[in-house]
Write a structure and sequence with these properties.
Blueprint lengths: L2 E4 L6 H12 L2 E4 H11 L2 H11 L6 H14 L6 E4 L5 H13 L6 E6 L2 H9 L1 E4 L5 E3 L19 E2 L6 H15 L3 H7 L2 E5 L4 H12 L7
Parallel strand pairs: 1-3, 1-4, 2-3, 4-8
Antiparallel strand pairs: 5-6, 5-7
Helix pairs in contact: 1-9, 2-3, 4-5, 6-7
Bound molecules: BIS(adenosine)-5'-pentaphosphate (AP5).
Length: about 220
């Protein structure tokens, strides 16, 4: 089973993908995480991407398509994958279809998380993660059990993303509205798009996604 999770920045895509990976034994392919790994390694791709990411702009399609194509090739024998943050433009959606048909794969569900912009700003401005194991937290919605100590690995150092500054969040939202939201009709026309209310708790959203995957009809 292959899935795409779409939604504006901060909609909870990464949070939900991590839960679904455990539920259904899938592989998460997050273009944002791949790019942050490139930035951290100081590679040529990373240096180019960093400037765009810090400005809240999208990274060029050719670079993203190549990155995802390598990952799909690597994971052809898995039970399935979840695409997190990809595709984000019409060109990326077209390229993905080409890759899938070449490998005789198909997309089973495209799930759009709908969250209003005020909530996005609250979610992103409070987000932080463990510097060691990368698990995500939030100042209000998901604090570590013990202050300053990661619940999972016990590390005491946390980091915030450089693109979670208010000004950059506004640019990311604008890029989403102009370039990413317009691809929704493409998946709707294919009959595989399901939009769900992403404003509930993390667990409520998780339940709704599972209902879609298991063939139910989530009540928003
Ligand atoms: P990327 O890393 O994909 O960022 P994004 O799409 O902006 O999404 P986020 O990771 O910020 O949010 P999310 O929806 O995963 O939310 P999360 O679960 O963390 O991309 C970063 C950049 O890379 C882009 O701006 C672009 O430059 C580049 N890029 C990436 N992919 C690209 C592509 N395909 N093409 C071109 N460029 C690309 O949740 C956010 C916070 O809210 C967390 O603190 C979480 O704990 C909390 N939270 C989650 N769910 C809930 C809930 N239900 N209630 C309360 N709090 C919640």
């Amino acid at each position: 089973m292959n899935l795409i999770i779409l939604g504006p920045p901060g909609a909870g895509k990464g949070t939900q993908c991590k839960k679904l990976v455990k539920d259904f034994d899938l592989i998460q392919l997050s273009t944002g995480e791949m790019l942050r790994a490139e930035v951290k390694s100081g590679s040529r791709v990373g240096n180019k991407a960093k400037k765009l990411m810090d400005a809240g702009s999208l990274v060029p399609d050719d670079l993203i398509v190549e990155m995802i194509s390598i990952q799909i090739d690597k994971h052809v024998n898995v039970k399935g994958f979840i695409l997190d943050g990809f595709p984000r433009t019409a060109a990326q959606a077209g390229a993905l279809d080409g890759m899938l048909s070449e490998k005789a794969l198909k997309m089973d569900h495209v799930i759009q998380l709908e969250v209003d912009e005020d909530a996005v700003i609250k979610r992103l401005s409070g987000r932080f993660s463990c510097a060691e194991c990368n698990i995500g937290y939030h100042d209000v919605f998901k604090r570590p059990i013990e202050d300053n100590k990661c619940d999972i690995c016990g590390a005491q150092e946390f980091v915030r993303r450089t693109d979670d500054k208010l000004e950059t969040i506004h640019s990311r939202l604008a890029a989403y509205r102009h370039k990413s939201e317009p691809i929704l009709p493409y998946y709707n026309d294919k009959g595989i798009l399901k939009c769900i209310d992403g404003m509930g708790s993390m667990e409520d959203v998780h339940t709704k996604i599972k209902e879609i995957i298991m063939g139910g009809d989530p009540k928003n």
